[in-house]
Every structure is written in C-alpha cells, then in structure tokens.
Amino acid sequence: MSEKPLNFIEHIIAEDLKEGFSPKDLRFRFPPEPNGFLHIGHVKAICINFNLGARYQAPVNLRFDDTNPAKEEAQYVEAIKNDIKWLGFEWDKECYASDYFKQLYDWAESLINKGLAFVDSQSSKQIAEQKGTPTEPGSPSPFRDRTVSENLRLFQEMKAGDHPEGAHVLRAKIDMSAPNMLLRDPVMYRIVHKAHHRTGNDWCIYPMYDWTHGESDYIERISHSLCSLEFKPHRDLYDWFLEALAPLVGTRPKQREFARLNLSYTVMSKRKLKNLIDQGHVSGWDDPRMPTISGLRKRGYTPESLRNFVNTAGVAKRDNIIDVSLLEFCVRDHLNKIAPRAMAVLNPVKLTIENYPDGNVEWLKSENNPEDEQAGFREVPFSRHLFIEREDFKEEANRKFFRLTLGKEVRLKNAYIIKGERVVKDQNGGIIEIICSYDPQSKSGSGTEESKRKVKGTLHWVSVEQAHPIEVNLYDRLFEVEEPDKAMEEIPSSFINPNSYSQTSGFVEPSVAKATQGTRIQFQRIGYFILDQKTPEGTLVFNKTVGLRDTWKKA
Fold first, then answer.
1. Do 329 and 189 belong to one domain?
2. pTM
C-alpha cells in the first residue's frame, strides 16, 4: 500500500529539513483564544499540528492566547483542554501568553528605546481614520515623534494604571504608506482595567495579538507557526516584530498559512456562535446543534470520525466550503462499525397478533452488529402484543408501499411474517390498534422452507410487556441556508431551521435498559443515538446523532 502523499505544509517542512534544519528543533503549537468553546474548524488546526508532531516525533505545545480579559474565562480554558484530550491528543507543554507578559513588556520598552514604538494619545476612531485605504497612504499620528523619554514615561504610567481606558495606546512605528495596511503603525498595547483570569489585577495594559503571537512562538522555540489563511497578511508584521527585536538567539519561527475549514450550513465564528446563545436560538455552547466539539460530543459524534473527516477534507492553500454531508458520512461510517444494534419505536402504535398464544414470550436471537464479528448476539422478547412505528402502517396503500397494510404480508425483523387483518379505532377515527395474524412456520433462521419465504417489507418492533420507556431529543441542522456565515453579527431568524430540534418519546427493547451514559446505539431503521442521561424515574434520554442516510434536501 503506497504512502499518502505529503500535503503542502509537510513539503515545506521536508524542504527545511533537506536544507539542514535539524529534526530535533521541530516544535509545533496549537494556540486557541479562551473566549469560547472550540468548534469543528478548530479540529482541523488541532489535527494539523498534532499530526505533524506525531509524524516527526516533535513536541506540540498548547498555548492559550489569553490577552483579552474582557472576553476570556477560566471555564473556556478547561473546556478547550477537555476537547483536545477527547480528540485523542496530548500536548507537551501547557503555556499561556500571560506567562510572557513581563517579557513582552520589556521587549516593548526596548522597541521604544530603538525609536520603533511610540505612545499615541488619539482615540481608536481617529487612529482608524488616519490608516488610509489600500490605494491611499495613511497619515502619521501627531504623537508619532514623541521623544523616547516621554514615550517611556507614558508607557510606564499606562502599566501602573494611571490612565483610563482609551486614553493611550502603544503603537509600532513602521510605515504609514506600506501597501500592507497592517504595517501602518499597528497598535501593540491598549489599556484594559479588568481582572485577568490568571494574572488578576497585576496588569492594566494588555498586548495585542500581532505583538504577542510571534514573540510567544519565539519564546517557546516553535519552528513552524501554522495559522489559518486569514492570517496571511499578518505574516509581514509577524516577521517585522521578530526582526525589530534582533539580535535574537536560536530558532526564529516561520509562519505559514493553510485554508480554514468552512462547512456548509454551519457558522464557524465563535463570536457568532456566542450570539446564537445570547439570542436564545440554542441552549449553550454544548447544544447538540452547535458545531462545537462539546456539542458534537453530546450529540454522539466520535473523535475518530472527526479526525477522519479532517483527514478526508485535506489541507489546502485556498479557502473552499466542505459539504456538511461529508462530516455526517464520516460519523455514520464509524458508528456503523462500532455501534450495537437495538430496536426502538419512537411513534408507537399497538399491534396484536390474534393467533399468537396469549401470555407466551419467545426470546429471539438478534445480531448485535453485523459489521463486528466479535459483537455477538442478544435475546429479544417476542409476544402477542407489540409496538411498531405508526408510519409503518397504512390502512390502504398503493403498490409502492412495502410496509404493513391490510391483507398484505411483511416480516417482523428477526421474527415472523405477519399479515394485516383489521384495525381498532377510537371515537375520532384514529387507529389505536392493528390486528394481525402470523405464520408460525416463518420464524427467521428456523431452517424451514417457510422461514426462507421472501416478503418485500421488514419492520422493527418492541414487545409491549417488556418495553422500556425512552425520551428522544431529535436534532437536525440548525440553519436552512448553505452559507449562514455570510451574515453579519446578527444571524437572521429566517436562517434558522424551525425543525432543528424536537422531542418525542417511545420504547426500546429491554437490553437497552442496561446501557450507561454515553453509550452509542443504532436504532434499527431509524438512525444512530447516544444515551444522554437517565431520569430519576429510570427513563432513558437519547440524543439523535445522525440518520442512517443523508436525507437532507436543499431548499
């Protein structure tokens, strides 16, 4: 079997090694901001970095970019760590940008001393207005030529908390006419009078991402700083800051970019995901309709399926949109291999076999998973009174309806062939019971010619007396539009799928009653489900993971 070809990032690393870069100096990192839960897009970045670590036997750091105390919380740190571990990865060092605040501050002072940074006392609006346009140069700040001593004094006062938020910022002094607008004297520090989740009230100024990121990479001796494509324009600034600090000893990190993971019918912005929570469209970060790792885990997705999805989607240089059906296929494909089978009825109607002995119970042999030879068999009770799905019966039906109807035969899965005889209705004409007859010689696997008789329909069922009650949360895609991420901050209500969540109740065969929380099961002919919890009364509560096939129809 041929080895999988290298992706373009692996080619870059291979060329560096060919040109003499030592494999011992390879080091990667995953740098999340602790301002929300990780989502499916982050899975790609996680897999790229940790897979490279595994391929080259190089360490991978987990570094939290915790430079904005206004939006960051300790709960997000813990959620991120749990998600990465659940995906099956272990990091070498757990790092925080806040660990480097003192070093970053000292380096900022060194840039002031070199004449490469200054304190600007304009408002953010004024600074933005002076940036210019992609075709027009910007204009310099009136404070750009402050003396080194004045800049140092003001910067130290900012650090000491002597000035209110918005009074000053520290800016790099680069080039207000640079074609890359990010080089037009970018802000390095701003005043924020808020407690940090790790450093408390030690700091009143906080570094900006562009100033923090490359320097943190350098401190940690990261060899290849891999970012999503939207950071490509930031590479010039990344390199400028490192050059401005020269001479630097040791490995200087190299930033390279890959296309982010864009998924159809999915929002991939933590800011917009938080807005969905705030607007009440979902119950929280771990709502099973959310594309967060926590939400997908609660819905029953497996770490193996998410890793396989990312590997299948590949590592590209250009942005594109991956159809969400590929993700659902990967989940379905893995669950098909590992999930035990069981019968459940979610919209029950009673079925009585009038010629079956009353009070008799047979325990029929059923295969746990035809995809797994080691899964074995279970016994399922069969009796005179059963539940079947209401939609599996029609009093009158055309020739294309291959389920149960009056005068027509179908097979009950792993059991007998039955024929619809008549129905019992309530005073409003609703069917409350289906009366059937069965062929005693037609039991599946009995070895008789009659048991091998073919009928077109096969139905799942549950014995009434031994049935265990369940509640089911049914989930579908949250959005009805293919590219909801194109919306601005507020996601229009018209984008939301009104049928993305519903609840129902039903019954399962008794073997399922032994299931523990987190157990994944295929309810035959319905889909894949995960046991979310057991109520105090003993009712099992399941979340639907995915159907047995892609039934989504585009609007």
1. no
2. 0.93
